[in-house]
Each structure stands twice: as structure tokens, then as C-alpha cells.
Amino acid sequence: MGLIQWLNSTQRKNWHSVVLSVIIGIVMGLMIIPSMRMITNVAPVKSYIFEGVVMDEDNHPIQGASVLINRVGSSKSNSDGTFHIQERRGLGTALEVGQNLEVMVSAKGYETDEQPFELSESKMQTMKFILNKIN
Fold first, then answer.
1. What phi and psi, each to the nearest 5 degrees, are found at residue 85?
2. Domain ranges, ordered by start, for the chain
3. Per-residue pLDDT tens for 43-98?
4. Are 129 and 81 in contact (CB under 8 A)?
5. Separation CA 50–CA 115 (nearest Å)
């Protein structure tokens, strides 16, 4: 097929449509990606993980202990005494480094333990609680 015949053919017209569609897609993508970044940057989410262990005075794990962190959440300890609380907040409600949180741990047959806890820069906050048996 010669050049003149190709220029007048439907093959050329189809090829032209494909190229035009690809260019339009690229341009639209370049316009959408920055706007999506703006949307996601408007409300960044900070996430902290609070993990720890609840033990008795003999260093045995306490299963089923309630762990409550004010303004964050709560959890129950597992059979090995460990607990896990994940906290996620958006802009304006995020916890701040250095903020004091109250942590309360209680279990049936044990004295309740309340302690202040200062939030550090780490995304992983680790705690250990030792509960005394009620006499």
C-alpha cells in the first residue's frame, strides 16, 4: 500500500483515533493525579498502635484484663496477657506527641491500675502493667 493510499484509508483513521484517545487519557490522568493528592493531603490520618502486656505480681499473664486508654479505645488481654489497640484519627483530632493519656487496667480479682502515659514520637507505643491480687 502506498503512502497516498494509506493516508486516505480507514486504517489511518482508526490509528488516528487510537493515538488521540491515548493522548487524551494521558492529559486527563495528569489533571486527576494532582487533584487526588490535594484531597488526600487535606485530612492526613495519624495512626498509633498501643500494645502491651498485663501480668500479676508473680509475673504470670492475666487473660481478659480490660485496658482502657481515654480518648483512644479499649481492648481485652489475650491468654498470654498481651493487648493491642490501634488508633486512627484525621486532621484536627489527631493525638500529639507529649500528650498525656490516662490508661486504666482492670481484671476480676485484681486491683485496678490507673497510670498516666505520655505519647512519644514512635507509632508503636508499648506498655506493661502489673496488677496486684485483691486480698
1. -130, 125
2. 3-42, 46-131
3. 555 678 889 999 999 999 999 999 998 878 899 999 999 999 987 765 556 677 78
4. no
5. 14
Grid coordinates standing for 42?
487535606
From the DSSP assignment, how many helices (H) and strands (E) are in the chain? Answer: 2, 7
C-alpha cell at 62: 492475666
* pLDDT above 70: residue 135: yes
Nearest to 63 by CA among 99, 109, 22: 109
CA distance 109 to 111: 7
Contact call for residues 72 and 101 (beta carbons, < 8 A): yes
User: CATH second-level architecture of 46-131?
Assistant: Sandwich (2.60)
Give dist(CA 113, CA 133) in Å, integer: 11
Nearest 5°: the CA angle 125, 126, 128 is: 145
Closest-CA residue to 104 (of 134, 65, 135, 133):
65
Q: Compute the residue count for the chain.
A: 135
